[in-house]
Each structure stands twice: as C-alpha cells, then as structure tokens.
Amino acid sequence: MPSVLGHALAGLTISAAYTQGRPPRRSWILATACAVAPDLDWFTGFLRLSDGNSLSHRGVSHSLLAAALIAAAAMLIGFRHRLRSPRHWACMLSAAFSHGLLDACTFGGTGVAFLLPFSRARFVCLWQPIFVSPVPLTGRLLDWLLFSLGTEIVWIGIPAGLAFGAPRAIQWLRLRRSSEELP
Questions:
Q1: For residue 148, how far is the Cα from the chain centroid?
Q2: Which of 7, 72, 73, 155 is found 20 to 30 A from 92 (Cα to Cα)?
Q3: Crossing angle for the helix pair 141-152 and 4-17, nearest 10 degrees?
C-alpha cells in the first residue's frame, strides 16, 4: 500500500480538481478522509486473517461498494442537505475509490477486491510503479520505507503538484498577458 501520506495527497488533489480555485476546507478534509479511510482495515491484521479473507487488508473496505458507503457517510456527516451536490458526491466517491486504485498500482502485497461482496477476485494493475510501504519500521525496513516514499513522490507527488500548479500557472499567465495588453 502507499503510505497514508500518499493516499492523503491523492484525496487532497482530487478535492482540488473538483473545485475552482482553492478547495473549501470542508471538501479537502472530507476528501482526504475518504481517501485514507479504507486503510482502517489494517487493524484486522491483529486478527491474523489470511490474505485472501474478505475482511483482510485490501478486502471489502477497498471495494467499489465500500467507496460508495464511505462517500455517502462523508456527505451525510460533512454537508447539510442544501449543500449536497452531485459535484461533492463525485469528489468524495473519487477520493474513496482512489485508495483502491493506488493500492492496485503497488508492487507487492495481495490484489484489491474491487468487486466484493459480488466476487472474491482480486485485481492488480499491469503496471505497478509504487512500492509497498513496510509496517512495522525496523532495521532495513526503514530503507525500504524511504525507497517506497521516493516512488510515491514520483508517481503521486509530481502529478499532484502538476494538478495544483498547472491551473494557477495558466491563470497567472492570463493575468500577465492581459496586464501587458492594457495601455
């Protein structure tokens, strides 16, 4: 799995993509929470479930159904009835689903059970550029963590920076061009 930071950055970036200008605080907090929430299944590791179990990591909490439930919970908790819009719903759903997609793009670990409870099949991406973050951190695992964070910077951080920076750069260029055209 990517680290919590990678998932949080994805949620933050998704909230920025669904809003113009700076995303409202409520949107980016809820989208970030939606993107991180599926990893609460990490605690099932203490139950010593097998990797293929529906309740194990990357199981039912990473499914499309769980993404919809997480997004619905975020909408109910975070937005009053008059503030709920299809755009907010799509943002929260995209943020929650991004978690499974990023996990499917990691090298190592089991596949993601996107279709649970309808199918027990687990899926991985053909291209897996992100390395799994090790837990717990001891000895050589710290080196592995630093390496995995490096892959997250390349494959999550740089695209996130472009998603944040490109619209602002375009706006800056337009303002500069319009100020040059004024006499």
A1: 16
A2: 155
A3: 10
Residue 35 in contact with residue 93, Cβ under 8 Å?
no
Q: Which residues pair with 174 in a beta bridge?
A: none
Confidence check: pLDDT of 138 > 60: no
**Would you state the pLDDT for residue 55?**
74
Whether residue 82 is predicted with pLDDT greater than 90 in this model: the reply is no
106 phi/psi in degrees, rounded to 5: -95, 145
User: CA separation (Å) from 123 to 50, 105, 111, 119, 139?
Assistant: 17, 10, 5, 11, 31
Between the two ends of the chain, the Cα-to-Cα distance in Å is 55
CB 152 within 8 A of CB 2: yes
User: For 121-132, what is each residue's pLDDT tens digit?
Assistant: 999 999 998 888
Write phi, then psi, for 182 (nearest 5 degrees).
-75, 140
Strands (E), the chain: 106-107, 130-131
- For residue 69, give the amino acid letter: L
Beta bridge partners of 14: none
d(CA 91, CA 97): 10
Residues 6+ apart with CB under 8 A from 53: 59
What mean pLDDT do residues 4-32 have? 87
